[in-house]
């Protein structure tokens, strides 16, 4: 089959690779209908995620059709149209039973790397390095889906493929940020980043009752899209001081909940941003946390900051003093998709959650390297490139 392979930093190519097979009785094989790029893939492309090997198939967000079913699979049959969570989770361990699905103890087949990096390993993800299990990704014609009873979800009739595709990852990630960030009716919520994840976090905050949602980015087309399709207010951080603007718009108090949806490659033209760039390139710090710092300073006293952006290691100049003295709750997580996806698909079916506008650049899988160039460099208003492997 055809698949998009990581070949080295900023090097991708479409190659012929072996078709996946059922390896475990709980697997299904999904024939991919659509698969999309994610900001997380850009961190792979940039060489910021360790344990990638040339030839690894990337991609972790996909919808498709079940074409082979392992003997212990109970909830799926041939021909089912399913959207699959980007995180792979066993459904039976202590973490899965406590709704902490991305922390599953049984899905990461390569726990040693995560243990060395973080103390305990995170769960497994499709197409996201050998540190996250070395699973083959979804930018391919077929994918093996382990623990399919827990990770694959039937798509309700009436929800089209393009809309449902985003239930793999960006919609549940955004929802988790607003939910576990503690958004309550009446809150003011600020969201850094107007990519798919940030837009979905902003939408989730509204659906959870936030009175005002303020989204922050610098790309005019992303800001306009967030105003139009999500209904949030926006701030262009390249044109104004974000902290001062947020104080102004919140009567001097600051947002109740701040959600960071930017991650380790944050853009920052200030002195601290240059410092982060240099240190990251020299590998003296692994991540550039400008948006996290800004969120911590901007948040109201006693408020909550939720980090959705992916970070891989250590950062400098973390404002621990602001966190402590302002009594903040700071959390982060990889997405616990299995907890939210069925509810989110229902909301999509009811028309409460619109996602299809995120698919700005549909194209055949053969053109995926071009799609990544558009997405990485935010060219031509690209928010997500969506690949269809079929002819
Ligand atoms: N926690 C999870 O489970 C999970 C799941 C999916 C994605 N992610 C992460 O979420 C982040 C966003 O993903 P995406 O797909 O939306 O990516 P994206 O690249 O499409 O969007 C990121 C946005 O952040 C903006 N940005 C950059 N620097 C900024 C700054 N200083 N202030 C405000 N905005 C800034 C960019 O202009 C861009 O629009 C990535 O780090 C990704 O790895 C996490
Ligand atoms: Zn993703
Ligand atoms: Zn588990």
Automatic annotation (TrEMBL):
UniProt record similarity statement: Belongs to the zinc-containing alcohol dehydrogenase family.
Protein name listed in UniProt: Alcohol dehydrogenase
Gene3D superfamilies in the cross-refs: Medium-chain alcohol dehydrogenases, catalytic domain, NAD(P)-binding Rossmann-like Domain
Single annotated GO MF: zinc ion binding
Stored CDD domains: FDH_like_1
Entry superkingdom: Bacteria
Organism, as annotated: Planomonospora sphaerica
Sequence ranges assigned to domain Alcohol dehydrogenase-like C-terminal in this UniProt record: 196-267
Alphabetized UniProt keyword annotations: Metal-binding, Oxidoreductase, Zinc
Cofactor(s) required, per the database record: Zn(2+)
Residue ranges of every copy of the Alcohol dehydrogenase-like N-terminal domain listed in the record: 25-149
